[in-house]
Amino acid sequence: MSENAVFPGDKIASIEEYEAGYNTFDDGDMVIASTVGEKDLNKTERIVNIKHPKVLSIPKPGDIIVGTVAAVMSSMIAVSIDYINGEPTTSKVECVCGTRNLRIRNVALVNDIVALKIISHLNGTIHAAINEPELGILFTKCRKCGNKVVSMRDAIKCTECSWIDERKLSTNFGKSNFVKLRE
Ligand SMILES: [Zn+2]
Q: First-to-last CA distance in the chain?
């Protein structure tokens, strides 16, 4: 931690010297930090701001993540993590998930929303699994026309062009409102 590190409730400056800026408030006497971060005393404008650190959230083995498929390769998918155990994360950490043993033609498409379980950290890469019933695709689209699909047993069917395709669907497919993650 640098010498500029502050914690919520820390008194940073007198309000006679500085005005409260971002992530601070004044109690009528002192400017006080309202978040963890680094203080930034702007001497020209006489304002104190707290720069919020970019919290890097790294999921642990056993965590359930929900993310957006960033890349699809022949034997694995790369997923940009949006939620760890239901908590949103903005650090955009990626994990990879092997798909070779699934024997499904199109396990996932880029931009699909998928639930995975973290299994290990290996050589700086986070590895995840998809082979449990609740794990898999939560949201996908038709590969041909990009329209809405519905599940039919293990397959999916496009409501627009009737294209039938395969995915590794989660048992939660179609139940959740994860569409909002795409906006
Ligand atoms: Zn279609």
A: 35
CA distance linking residue 82 with residue 143, whole number of Å: 23
pLDDT tens, residue by residue, 84-108:
998 888 777 999 999 988 888 889 9
Residue 128, classed as helix, strand or coil, is strand
Distance CA 178, CA 102 (A): 24
- As residues whose CB is below 5 A from the ion ligand 1, the structure lists 142, 144-145, 147, 158, 160-161, 163
Domains and CATH numbers, the chain: 5-51 (2.40.50.100), 64-182 (2.40.50.140)
Kindly give the distance from the C-alpha atom of residue 23 to the centroid of ligand 1, in angstroms, as a whole number. 47
Which two tokens mark 165? 């395709």
- From ligand 1's centre to the CA of 173, what distance in Å? 18
Where does 35-131 show beta strands of DSSP type E? 37-42, 47-51, 64-72, 76-84, 87-88, 94-98, 113-122, 125-129
Write the pLDDT tens digit of every residue in 43-89: 999 999 988 765 567 899 999 999 999 999 989 999 999 999 988 88
